[in-house]
Amino acid sequence: MAVSRAYRGVSAEDRRASRRRTLIETALDCLHTEGISGVSVRSVCARARLTPRYFYESFADLDQLLLASVNSVVDEVADVALAALTSSPPELAAQVRAAIDAGYGVVVTDPRKASALLVAASGHGPLRARRHQLVTDYADLIIDGLTVLNTLGLRERRTARAAALFVMGGAADVIEAVLTGRLRMTRVQLVDHLTALWLAVLSSIAAPSDVIVDGRREP
Questions:
Q1: How many Cα neighbours within 13 Å face the side chain of 118?
Q2: Cα separation of 140 and 142, whole Å?
Q3: Does the structural domain 69-217 have CATH classification 1.10.357?
Q4: Bridge partner list, 213
Q5: CATH among 3.30.70, 2.60.120, 1.10.10, 1.10.287 for 12-56
Q6: Which pLDDT does position 3 carry in this prediction?
Q7: Considering only 38-52, 123-137, 169-183, which range has the smallest mean pLDDT?
Q8: Is the distance from CB of 192 to CB of 100 less than 8 angstroms?
Q9: What are the start-end ranges of the H helices in 37-184?
Q10: What is the H or E stretch that residue 152 is in?
Q11: For residue 16, what pLDDT is reported?
């Protein structure tokens, strides 16, 4: 039976976790500089200054590492968007805008993370399914996080979720187009545009007496 010993006060488990984080960060670097076709176990290990032995203690293959790297960005976007949403005033427009701006801010300020989401959107191997799942996850985050929708009944929530999936799918395509340069928009313009789309859909679903847009109660 193997015995795990601490090294310089750091446990074996913590060292493994640290190496895993290093590999994920390095994969983000490689994806951004080399593209999906230029990333390999060898290139990641060389840049991380780790031997393949340490790669395989955390990941079964390259696809598993790529998925973990994309997931790290997906989770960060979700975390910051939810935090911004829950700390905003209980007004639909303020909450939607805050969530969109915070989430988009993660990728627009770090080109590596933008590249990771673009890889997910490219349909490469196991990332194809992850792209579809992240659209669903982000749509659910918006629906579950908006306090104005808390009073909806089951049927209305289903309608809201369907609408959110529709808008989120389109939003993902718009963001991809901006990040790749196919569509020219500033951060403010993009956030304004996506906020307007979300409000147009959600305002028609939420109870009229509960919807407040730009400080005004909507009729």
A1: 22
A2: 5
A3: yes
A4: 216
A5: 1.10.10
A6: 44
A7: 123-137
A8: no
A9: 41-48, 52-56, 62-87, 92-108, 111-121, 127-145, 154-179
A10: none
A11: 93
How far is it, in rounded angstroms, from Cα 38 to Cα 123?
Answer: 16
> For 7-40, what is each residue's pLDDT tens digit?
566 788 899 999 999 999 999 999 899 888 889 9
- CA–CA dist 99, 174 (Å, integer): 16
Q: Which residues contact 211 (CB under 8 A, 6 or more apart)?
A: 92, 148, 203, 217, 218
CATH 1.10.10 in the chain, residue ranges: 12-56
Model pTM score? 0.80
pLDDT at site 148: 73
Tokens of 51: 């031997």
Domain with CATH 1.10.357 in the chain: 69-217
pLDDT given at position 61 = 95
Q: Please check whether residue 167 is in contact with residue 203, taking contact to mean a CB–CB distance below 8 angstroms.
A: no
Residue 28 amino acid letter: L
Cβ-contact 57, 36 below 8 angstroms:
no
Do 99 and 145 meet the contact criterion of CB atoms below 8 Å apart? yes
Residue with token string 């309608």:
159
- Residue whose entry in the numeric block shows the structure tokens 């488990």: 13
